[in-house]
Amino acid sequence: MVNRELICPQSIVVVGGSNNVHKPGGRLVRNLLDGKYKGSLYVVNAKETDVQGLKSYHSVQDIPETEMAILSIPSKACVEVVDVLAHQKNVKAFIIISAGFGEETKEGGQLEDQILHTINEVGASLIGPNCIGLMNIHFHGVFTQPIPEFHPDGVDFISSSGGTALFIIESALSKGLRFSSVWSVGNSKQLGVEDILEYMDRNFNAATDSKIKMLYIEQIKDPDKLLYHASSLIRKGCKITAIKAGSTESGKRAASSHTGAIASSDSAVEALFRKAGIVRCYSREELTTVASIFTLKEVKGKNCAIVTHAGGPAVMLADALSKGRLNVPDLNGPIAEELKSKLYPGAAVGNPIDIIGTGTPEHLATAIDYCENRFDNIDLMMVIFGSPGLVKLYDAYEVLHKKMEECRKPIFPVLPSIVTAGPEVQSFIKKGHINFSDEVTLGTALARVLNTPKPASTDIQLYGVDVPEVRRIIDRLPADGYLSPEETRLLLKAANIPLVEEFTSSDKEELLAFARKIKYPVVAKVVGPVHKSDMGGVALNIRCDEHLLFEYERMMKLPGVTGIMVQPMLKGQELFLGATYENKFGHIVFCGLGGIFVEVLKDVSYGLAPLSYDETFSMIRSLRGYPIIKGTRGQKGIDEQQYADLIVRLSTLLRFANEIKEMDINPLVATERGLFAVDARIRIEK
Amino acid sequence: MVNRELICPQSIVVVGGSNNVHKPGGRLVRNLLDGKYKGSLYVVNAKETDVQGLKSYHSVQDIPETEMAILSIPSKACVEVVDVLAHQKNVKAFIIISAGFGEETKEGGQLEDQILHTINEVGASLIGPNCIGLMNIHFHGVFTQPIPEFHPDGVDFISSSGGTALFIIESALSKGLRFSSVWSVGNSKQLGVEDILEYMDRNFNAATDSKIKMLYIEQIKDPDKLLYHASSLIRKGCKITAIKAGSTESGKRAASSHTGAIASSDSAVEALFRKAGIVRCYSREELTTVASIFTLKEVKGKNCAIVTHAGGPAVMLADALSKGRLNVPDLNGPIAEELKSKLYPGAAVGNPIDIIGTGTPEHLATAIDYCENRFDNIDLMMVIFGSPGLVKLYDAYEVLHKKMEECRKPIFPVLPSIVTAGPEVQSFIKKGHINFSDEVTLGTALARVLNTPKPASTDIQLYGVDVPEVRRIIDRLPADGYLSPEETRLLLKAANIPLVEEFTSSDKEELLAFARKIKYPVVAKVVGPVHKSDMGGVALNIRCDEHLLFEYERMMKLPGVTGIMVQPMLKGQELFLGATYENKFGHIVFCGLGGIFVEVLKDVSYGLAPLSYDETFSMIRSLRGYPIIKGTRGQKGIDEQQYADLIVRLSTLLRFANEIKEMDINPLVATERGLFAVDARIRIEK
């Protein structure tokens, strides 16, 4: 696993290093040299005696003991080389950039297995194979360009894909984003994205480590590990943003439940990111913009001041912030008037604060000072300052630089004149700053950051759920498939989910007696077939004995029917509650209003089990139909607390019953006396 | 108005030109000289005899006759200078860059008025004041930088704001976007955005004019003109994209109708852009990306092939395209296999077509050829090609260049290595190409383009609407306010909108007789007060004489009640139809499902009256609740054609009744026998 030798090796051997910098082995040596690597650097190349000024050994047998080896040789040659390095040269860290392994052929996969075996034997670490390598403050162990600027406060970047990592770095460079480390994990034979994150979490040192993590993930192999360590790092003060590519995979699984039909393979990823507190992005531009936001001072609230010398971009930015549910509060009253009196005629201070095109660097300083010290309803400032090319902007950007150092409130610089004021922007960036060149991209990304919840509590809400009973019920189930109504009732009861009273029989007298006892109107449903309603197996609003008898006679003739179930006809708002199981992720729990809300409008929200109350209330409140739950149009709402209780308890039940693959409680009816599950279907696979 | 002298002046005088290129007057002269202006160039400066190598006249009195004057002098001096130039020097085109006019003070506004009067007297044109100027293929009449590259096929760009125009150009430069003209209209004293567009439309020459228009608009002063000429240009083969800044103005007007509460000031803009076929953008980055898309070959369909040498960006792009309802069709079968056999092992052809990192320029050419000639289900190609820095990309980009020239299908180049392969990307752009550096930004923008409708038909659907009767009813209305039920009925009848049968009286016997005639159940509503339902003035589902009598007695005691109206109780899906009047834009017509759909879920769509059938069906079908209209969950749908008829006819009625400021038909009930308006409120202002 990750060790000191991988992060800060005292010596490195490049196996396959060469003089040709247009080949990976040559470029690797060049990058290490250009990066002023301070340890001992060796090269192994059978055909050369001198490689870029370094002595070249003809065989790995010949080199001294070395901490790290970077291999850029054909895949077939790697097995033996690793063996020698691991067993004879005490190498404790391997980076294998060579391709031709498991990503291409089965034989390649076997080579990987052998290599991993050797490396694990000696307790060494492995990055790759099939990657671009690893670079950080200590060394640039990659065969590619560009090499970004490194700084302890920069971004720790871990990527599933080397090529994509490069293109993400390209997008970061123009913003001035600096890095602390860049990890390309390739085939992740030993170390994957989750493992690097685990290392960063377990060894986190708040004084020295970067607090910004940026991830590009193609496949989440270990969701639990990602969730655990991402949440943990965020609780320790880190910020994490990530792309999970492949979010709209069209291939939907065949699903027999409502929930199954709604859930996509992306729901699990979305739910996991939200639970962990990871800011999810969908493009390189977004990802590097969010990471850039992370480099600035902590944002304490959603109230933004926009300071500008041009109206248009400020208005577009204000639009983007409002769309993202951030505030651009009005600034008025005596303090605003005082600020206005210090600016040129024509300036506006209502927010945006427009110091107008001829506004001076002093005006900029004044406007920032007022936002910092005088306006209480401002949490952060966005400063838009470009140039029509008449004068240089060094003075203005020096003001911005100083204020960004001094002010407690974060300042987001938007410097749009990247060509006309190119040198000034570059000089500003060289001082360690970020430039956001498009204000709307910034506004949208900031909204994404501020609308991402904190990591959810990891406590499981056990109250009200009889876990041993849940296990007993599940364990004694004989086979895969749908639970019987009786088993379903028992399971829901174990999680304290209230069920509508019901009685099942094939005897008409018993059914009539029950109906009279619970009082008409009642509902009758066939027992047996799965798709009851499709075959006329459900009769609502039965108001008298005659009506019930008529339905009894009709239903008992339907194919496969073994009996009739009678329930009271509940009146109230229909709700929906369901879950699907996603391999390795666990259960995604869905909630929403019933009927057309779930089936036509797809108005559901979801989260990863087990759910905390915070997560659950936020799920309920993010429904478009939430006003109906709260009560609207003269209608009383429903008991939101009880709905949340049921969702939380169901999620706890599921946490201990991975055998449940799909389930619906549909409808769950909110009556005057509380919520009752009226119908439920549960499918298990053992 | 716009004339030849404004667009291609044979001679220009810069009044206030100077030697100081850090001042507007000096920079203006420099830009004209740097732009190699071919006509006669004069400078007027009282203090100089030589300005940047040109003879300087001490007074405008001294210059020869000149076609265009660009003024960069204090606002107060402009009036007299314009007078001399217009009346004595035969100047026919003015660009006034000076500020200090109507945008600052009332006195400034009066100066503007005087100047406009003089200019109109001699039939000259005026750009400004308070602008950066005008630049095109013939001359660079601006005091600012950057100056983009000009080309007859470039973009015609018209901007309300000079500063914003510059920042938009900055964003265009990095993509390689070229311009045909840049207009900054400033205070738009004579010529505004709409007027320039009008000129371009009336004088459109398909052989010589650019077909790409890009607009930045802060205020739409003449919506009809914008709509008319934008649609007309698009019908002539142009493409238009625009930003209208200020889309989320929080200040919602007080509204007394449902529609009023839903409509925002942005609805009108959105409806107008859609009707015109303008692609709406919200950021500089989006705007210049859309304009860049317009420079490529015509996109004939929504089926995209992604050709790449790196998996990650291709997957992110595929996600973005799917989200935007474009297709990335599977490529398989013998042709796909054949293509695969021509690429390196490990390549994938399923779409994305991944020629892998080591893929050669020849592989790129092959993949493009297959998409162009062999795959029938591909309409366009997106090519992602960057570099890890080992080799130069000139060969690959030469392939791309040639294929973009040769292929009938459009090719979108995404060249992400803007730093590492910077020189190669620049050389590619120099050949006249665009580079989209972020694939997701491109994918999102392309979806925006392909999802924008064509301009709507301008025919007014008169069938079924008795326009003279509409006018008679409106004209005889005595005062502003809500129409009485009787007037409302007459008006809706004139548009052939079916109304539920009803009878109003204060005589209980008459009401009972009517109820018996139409058959119970019935509805009773008070006549008089506006907010009936708030005061218990509506009783539904009255099933017998006794019940009706009871309600009669109760209702007649409510304050302000003058009578009771009885209607049959209709059963069916509730629909909603409404409209608001937006100053200068006309009526925005809203449709949707009734009840919670409109009040809680705000699920409405809208368009600008008068509506065509295409627009109306597209409105109905874009409702989230549309499946209910179509029929879902075993429920029959509603008569969509009749709903469309009613919407179209209502929009025609409104077109001839601008006095109607707000109206709701709520509900409109879809019964077995057709749609009937059950309740309607109409407010007029004369």
UniProtKB/TrEMBL annotation, chains A, B:
Domain ATP-grasp: 489-525
Keywords: ATP-binding, Ligase, Nucleotide-binding
UniProt cross-references to SUPFAM superfamilies, sorted A to Z: Glutathione synthetase ATP-binding domain-like (SSF56059), NAD(P)-binding Rossmann-fold domains (SSF51735), Succinyl-CoA synthetase domains (SSF52210)
GO terms of molecular function: ligase activity
Keyword ATP-binding (UniProt): yes
UniProt keyword annotation of Nucleotide-binding present: yes
InterPro entries, sorted: ATP-grasp, ATP_grasp_subdomain_1, CoA-bd, NAD(P)-bd_dom_sf, Succ_CoA_lig_flav_dom, Succinyl-CoA_synth-like
Recorded superkingdom: Bacteria
Name of the molecule in the record: Acetate--CoA ligase family protein
